[in-house]
């Protein structure tokens, strides 16, 4: 069975995503324009009572098939669907087998350090565990000497990050959604929960973004920065994740 905190997180996630949806047809007098529980249940082909219980964090053991129907009814993206199944402690029958990293091997650390453009690796708490010289020069407030190494705390709490990252708030709001995809794989790690709670208390923006229950895959592509020495620069950043 799921522990109470995991059930609470699952209920909050389902409720937040239901409340983003609208009914299939408008009409009549409604207290809310958002999708009701019974409407979600009808879309997913599940019991309204079961839907209510899961949102309330009660002890409900859903089958993978029922979770799949719920994911489709909620119009979840791939990362959000994975997160739903992780929270529910179930294997997604539609998911392929994915390779996962354990401790970053020396070969990976050597590769990161050998790259000409900024590159770094993160552990499960999103602390930098390896990086190269170019990343040190770019992220001087994060990977510089004497700096704390947590990427989330750097993005949300360090004023250097606000100056370095163009359109800081827009880009910062994506970070918790990406982190949540990794968070779901380590739900019983109390260090993660303590870090999220502490960051939410220190940053209103993080607390709001985390409360939105968004889940996104990390995406590559070009990133622009406004460096205090080299002015505006752009890189196709490489980031590796160490699951150990």
Overview of the structural elements:
The chain has 244 residues and is mostly helical. The protein has two domains: 4-88, 434 Repressor (Amino-terminal Domain); 106-241, Beta-Lactamase (2-Layer Sandwich), CATH 3.30.450. Helix content is 48%, strand content 10%. It has twelve helices and five strands. The protein has helices at residues 4-18, 37-44, 48-55, 64-73, 78-88, 106-114, 133-138, 151-157, 159-164, 168-183, 190-202, 204-211, and strands spanning 119-122, 128-131, 222-227, 231-236, 238-241. It has a three-stranded mixed sheet with strand order 2-1-5. A two-stranded antiparallel sheet has the order 3-4. Strand 1 and strand 2 form a beta hairpin. Helix 2 packs across helix 3 (48-55), helix 2 packs across helix 4 and helix 4 packs antiparallel against helix 5. 27% of the residues are buried. The model is unreliable at 97-103 (pLDDT under 50).
Brief account:
The chain is mostly helical and 244 residues long. It contains 12 helices and 5 strands.
